[in-house]
Design a protein that fits this description.
Blueprint: H1 10-35, H2 51-63, H3 73-101, H4 105-120, H5 122-126, H6 131-140, H7 146-171
Length: 174
């Protein structure tokens, strides 16, 4: 049973609000890393991977205030998934635009750092079965274009966001 508050679509409005805020936070994090002379493509960038799942759960909590009996499973999971998709799209678009407009030497510096990290971890790869193939595949698959960085950003945000928003929606449906 819905409350008497006049809202056209609380699921969509909540998803737009939370997804936009989380996406802007992801973009802001990359800019913060860049402005503080940290590698905006490096491992510290992955700290923003936690924004989509947090935003998804917050949206599910916020959605509960529109429904007296709870939003139900479909709306609770739906708002979390919508927030995740919107956040991932905004974050990937922001990173793509950043990589296109920033100095290309940043990508080259990142690749040098990433290769160095992989070389330091080479002994761990070689200790595993098929370690050489895994090492070479990891080295070959390093993102080196703005589109590759955007794709990586989108997939990471989507994966973690969906993994958290589904159980969050199940738990917060009532």
């Amino acid at each position: 049973m819905e409350t008497t508050a006049p809202t056209s679509s609380p699921v969509l409005r909540t998803a737009l609000l939370c997804g936009t805020v989380a996406g802007l936070l992801c973009i802001g994090w990359v800019l913060f890393l860049y402005l503080t002379d940290n590698n905006p493509y490096g491992p510290k960038r992955t700290l923003s991977d936690f924004f989509p799942p947090i935003a998804a759960v917050v949206s599910q909590i916020l959605l509960r205030r529109y429904y007296a009996e709870g939003p139900g499973l479909g709306k609770a999971v739906g708002v979390g998934v919508l927030v995740t998709v919107l956040t991932a799209l905004l974050a990937a678009t922001g990173l793509y635009l950043f990589a296109r407009t920033a100095d290309a030497s940043l990508i080259e510096q990142h690749l040098v750092e990433a290769r160095q990290l992989l070389e330091n971890a080479k002994s761990l790869y070689m200790a595993q079965t098929n370690g050489r193939q895994q090492f070479e595949a990891t080295l070959r698959n390093l993102a080196h274009t703005p589109a590759a960085f955007a794709q990586d950003e989108f997939l990471k945000k989507m994966l973690l966001g969906i993994l958290i928003s589904i159980p969050g929606g199940i738990f917060l449906r009532k």
